[in-house]
Amino acid sequence: MKWSKPSLAILYLAIIYLVGIVGILLPIHPEFIRLTPLNLLVSLLTVLLFHPAWQPQSVLVLVVFFVLGFFAEVFGVHTGLLFGEYYYEDVLGWKLWDTPIMIGVNWMLLGYCCGVTINHLLPRWAWWQKGPVAAALMVFLDSFIEPVAIAYNFWEWPGGVVPLQNYLGWYLVSLPLLLLFAYLQGQIRNKVAIALLLMQFVFLRYSAGSKHKNIPMIQVLMYIGITLLTVLVMEFVAWSAHKYLMHGWLWIWHEDHHKPHHEKEGFFEKNDLFFLVFAIPSALSYIIGLATPQRWLLFVGIGISIYGLIYFLIHDVYIHQRFKWFRQLDSRYSRAILRAHGSHHAKTHKEDGESFGLLIVHPKYFKKRSEWNEKQKTNSE
To answer: Whole-model pTM above 0.85?
Structure first.
């Protein structure tokens, strides 16, 4: 199996963010929090290393992101008119006019990642359509950032309450920046930027759950074990749901997923509703785990979320190529999951199906290419 350079970069960032998640859960978490400025710089440089076409307008957009983002924060800190009343602590490093210089880097990183993500998701939309959606994505991301920023003293709000004005201000600042990005860089693709944005959501969700507590090592290991066990169990839950629900009484939702590609109308399928169904136990686990002493349920919810992300990336992105983010690899395991899924989709009705799993597939699909081709030829005859 050969790894492409973007894949290696994504793996590198994933390791950094995983180490960050574990570090925040440990008693030494203040040391990890102090590394936030370095993490922002490393993330930005890694993402920009894979920017596909450096042109003057590329540099212009990034400079505008930094300058306007930074001075919007300066204005906000000194007047309270834009985001509300708040002030920065010392976690983000050197300040200029009571505002960390790294906050401009943060605007640059998040703006670029959100803009590129919308380019991938909505490639045919005009720039004036992409901009508002990308700005909304920025605000959604900020809703994840705020609880973490408050918990770890990045900045402070009076009473610890984030005003609605903050989110309106974020949209007001983000909109012109992302309209400019969509206008000048509307065709730019960068898989590493999308992967980083997803990592940000996962990292922030984990960090918010830790509540800035010193957690004993044995408890950290237990939480990690619960998360990994949940991911494993979800493969069998997905297998059972696929076989007995999707190919059973919920076939009415799943049927259009088995239609040939040329018969499908539009991008979305009824089958996509299952993502919402599986999000319910995850959301309930988050809520109960955060609102009650049953903290272990939080990590069950995180495990379900991680499996959902894996399922989306493998099933929808890698196998079905609904998003052209990754090329299909010519490796033994890759061929096996593609063969297994191809065999499953060979049936257009709910009966007599095979291979209902995703990550765990039958050994017969691991045959050598020559053996598999011979078997397929025999079956067709």
So the answer is: no
